[in-house]
Write a sequence for this structure.
């Protein structure tokens, strides 16, 4: 028990802070609530109770818990889950709704702490289950003493104790609680681990839960270090939600995988659970492939694209078949074309036109089949061939901007080729156009 109180001291909780405690009315959470009530008797404590609408005993347990809170000057907050998807109870949906409720209470009371009653046996069981099922470094570490969220932390001080220690303490202190009999049935996977494998390990070492906690802390240290490395690499290889393959392939295989996982998380957020290990392996294979253009169908109707040296999620469909009349400037998928007053370079990113030789207004559109441009002194070339030769991504060729007059004469392929209509600096012209392209920060 001393380890629990020593850990709580490291939190430096002041008397002005509100503590939100997740309480089911089982022995673990009731012991936690009683312990926090006694230790932080000057603090405002909020008991957050969720009625899962899954057991007939839940109504009576909620009433008893509410009375306990009233008798002990604890704020009682209650939520009942009225229905589940497809009218079927699932642990995942219940957990999601439960934690959404806790988050609302954190915001309501401006709290920084959510306490949960996960104990040492929970940690041991979780690690064992993930070892059997397969996971990653973050998963294998199981349950952390502290999990930081955006604006609060989840605190689990009972990880130092076993279930048996907690129940004995409840009996000694006359702390009321109820037992969920479903936790005794081998129908559930966790119960089989608890009643068989963990029981065997405890027979070998009664403090085995502390070994699992030590194992968890060790993995957490490694995971924290790797996360720091991955974030630095990610900032170097990512730009405008695209990954630079050449830079990424210089990294260790572990870092490459972690960068891909972070990239997927940033694009899927809570839906990242839809990403299977097979998908991650396919993306890693994509990095090593000699093929310049590859696509992978992703969950939620997304498409991941490898095009030459980049990986990105395809957004081409957002810009197909555009046509704009140029007045002052036009914003495009990959840059801006503007009418300017002065010439600041002689590259293909600027062109000079004589309004007497073309038919106004000037039009900016995407490529059409059969498009050709007449280049001064070089004859006619297909736009498609120019884009291929210039290594423009296959999936962006159809949205590459083309500048024409109102009779569809192609005047300029911005950034790539000038037409016969372009004038020399000393020639006669009254229109100057400039293309500011959104370049990748890692481009050479």
């Amino acid at each position: 028990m001393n380890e629990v109180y020593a850990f709580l001291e490291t939190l430096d909780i002041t008397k002005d802070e509100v503590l939100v405690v997740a309480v089911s009315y089982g022995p673990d959470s009731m012991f936690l609530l009683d312990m926090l009530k006694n230790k932080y008797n000057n603090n405002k404590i909020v008991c957050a109770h969720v009625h899962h609408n899954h057991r007939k005993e839940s109504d009576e347990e909620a009433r008893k818990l509410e009375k306990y809170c009233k008798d002990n000057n604890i704020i009682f907050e209650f939520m009942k889950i009225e229905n589940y998807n497809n009218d079927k109870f699932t642990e995942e949906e219940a957990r999601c709704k439960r934690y959404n409720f806790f988050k609302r209470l954190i915001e309501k009371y401006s709290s920084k702490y959510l306490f949960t009653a996960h104990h040492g046996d929970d940690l041991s069981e979780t690690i064992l289950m993930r070892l059997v099922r397969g996971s990653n470094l973050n998963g294998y570490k199981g349950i952390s003493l502290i999990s930081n969220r955006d604006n609060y932390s989840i605190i689990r001080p009972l990880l130092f104790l076993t279930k048996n220690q907690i129940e004995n303490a409840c009996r000694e202190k006359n702390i009321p609680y109820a037992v969920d009999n479903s936790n005794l049935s081998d129908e559930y996977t966790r119960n089989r681990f608890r009643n068989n494998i963990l029981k065997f390990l405890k027979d070998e070492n009664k403090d085995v839960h502390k070994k699992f906690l030590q194992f968890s802390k060790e993995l957490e240290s490694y995971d924290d270090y790797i996360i720091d490395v991955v974030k630095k690499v990610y900032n170097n290889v990512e730009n405008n939600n695209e990954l630079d393959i050449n830079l990424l392939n210089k990294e260790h295989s572990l870092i490459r995988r972690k960068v891909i996982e972070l990239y997927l998380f940033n694009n899927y957020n809570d839906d990242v659970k839809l990403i299977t290990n097979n998908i991650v392996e396919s993306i890693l294979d994509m990095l090593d492939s000699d093929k310049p253009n590859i696509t992978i169908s992703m969950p939620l109707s997304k498409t991941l694209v490898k095009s030459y040296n980049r990986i990105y999620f395809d957004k081409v469909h957002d810009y197909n078949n555009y046509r704009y009349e140029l007045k002052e400037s036009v914003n495009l998928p990959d840059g801006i074309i503007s009418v300017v007053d002065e010439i600041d370079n002689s590259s293909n990113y600027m062109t000079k036109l004589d309004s007497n030789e073309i038919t106004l207004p000037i039009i900016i559109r995407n490529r059409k089949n059969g498009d050709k441009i007449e280049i001064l002194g070089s004859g006619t070339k297909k736009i498609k061939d120019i884009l291929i030769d210039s290594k423009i991504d296959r999936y962006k060729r159809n949205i590459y901007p083309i500048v024409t007059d109102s009779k569809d004469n192609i005047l300029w392929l911005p950034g790539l080729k000038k037409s016969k209509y372009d004038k020399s600096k000393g020639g006669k012209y009254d229109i100057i156009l400039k293309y500011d392209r959104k370049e990748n920060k890692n481009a050479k």
Notes: Residues 14 and 151 are 17 Å apart (CA to CA). The chain has three domains: 2-219, 240-314, 321-437. Confidence is low (pLDDT under 50) at residues 440-444. The longest strand covers residues 45-51.
